[in-house]
Amino acid sequence: MAESNSQTTSQTLIDGNTLAAKSLAAYGITHMFGVVGIPVTSFANRAVAAGIRFIAFHNEQSAGYAASAYGYLTGRPGILLTVSGPGCVHGLAGLSNAMINTWPMVLISGSCDQSDVGRGDFQELNQIEAAKPFSKHVGKAKDIKEIPKCFFEALDSAVLGRPGGCYLDLPTDVLHQTISESEADSLIKSAVDVSEIEKGAKKMSIASLEVERAVDLLRNAERPLIVFGKGAAYARAENELKRLVESTGFPFLPTPMGKGLLPDTHELAASAARSLAIGKCDVALVVGARLNWLLHFGEQPKWSKDVKFILVDVSEEEIELRKPHLGLAGDAKKVLELVNKEIKENPFCLGKNHPWLEAITKKTKENVSRMEAQLAKDVVPFNFLTPMRIIRNAILEVGSPAPVLVSEGANTMDVGRAVLVQTEPRTRLDAGTWGTMGVGLGYCIAAAVAEPHRLVVAVEGDSGFGFSAMEVETLVRYQLPVVVIVFNNGGVYGGDRRNPEEIAGPFKDDPAPTSFVPGAAYHVLIEAFGGKGYLVGTPDELKSALSESFTARKPAVINVIIDPYAGSESGRMQHKN
Fold it and tell me: Where does the Thiamine pyrophosphate enzyme central domain start and stop, copy by copy (predicted)?
């Protein structure tokens, strides 16, 4: 009789890398950004095998900015994967950017073996403590069985309540531990179940009495104004805003990244009369925008001392901090649904001949006319206005779906904010609440991945472009439909702007701290990787480059030579209208 084998059957084992990938996929994650290496390369490969697209960068900082913008554009957590130690530190740039802008993101970093902590292991760092100041949640999987729970806690925390950045630590030894596939599936199911309960418990209720008070304030206002920001954009509140504006006839003012929720060309848009609108309004409904430096803290002299703020924010803490006349805590879209419902029961509307609307319309026309007169001139060598007008017209000619505009720089971003026109929601990404430079290429890649049906157009200063310029190779590698336009004026603000008395000392012959190599051939950089580069210095050259690159929808860099004396030092946004 033949000898029989044991009746026990071995179960399939999976390691921590596979379980981590399966956990992300189970949550619905479809994209990751990052830079791989020890100990997370296998995790990235398993994630790709699980159906998650991994976009590999050259630098964790740019990858982190991409993850943060992806979270904003999609409403799902943007995922950044880094190695331990310095990789994690580089990733903190993106994590902090997400936290300040209140966008959902999770930074996942490998870390050293737990048994070697404190012994000076390879790239050892207490990453939990390093990440805490920039996170609304930090977690660490200390055993393979904790991976699904830790992943879902971080992902949920990123999106629930006020969105923000979260950190998750994956020690090397945990990634190498194994578990049966059946137990892994059970742990993931349990994490899913807990997550659903958590989401249900976090749903906010909005007091109907507060909504009634808000509507009464709006109804009795003599000079009302609606202000909305990227929080309203994140909440997908554009339809509710449109209904509110058009049913009441109230003028509106978007913050820079709120532009496009309603078209900049709307007859009730007050952006071109900003100083008048905020300086004279008596009731301001502020939706998804914080009363921080971007809105002059809601204080004099920019605002009237008697203005009554109605603040709509997902965070009760934000409302308590700002101490408005009335606060409505909740999701912007849901709050506005209730406001519109309340107004519908007893409608009111400012007529076009109302003195407040007439004043704003008059000031808007004056300022637009003044700006258009400047834009109409073809100035060569280029100032900032001439190429910006040509770019504006080329973007508008694309039609719908409108391109996503990425804007960073000093003068380039400031002028672009006034000149470039947004017609659709979430089509403008810029330096944001923190005024972060270096976000450009990361944001471009995030937009191209999150909105594959849209062209992405970056309008960058040469200084801003320099932070992440190497990522043009990433554009080419993934063949993303991104056109990067670099305003090349030879440095920060435009090269050497020193007064004669400042040019002194033993190193006075060095280039100025604000200077770059004059006439830098930025367009050649992308050509090294197989992309298309353009060098332009006249209106016809720029028009031709834009037409060709927009039609091709392939990675391109347009190097626009600007008069180095055309710009000025720029810090906080200057609104002179």
Answer: 211-337
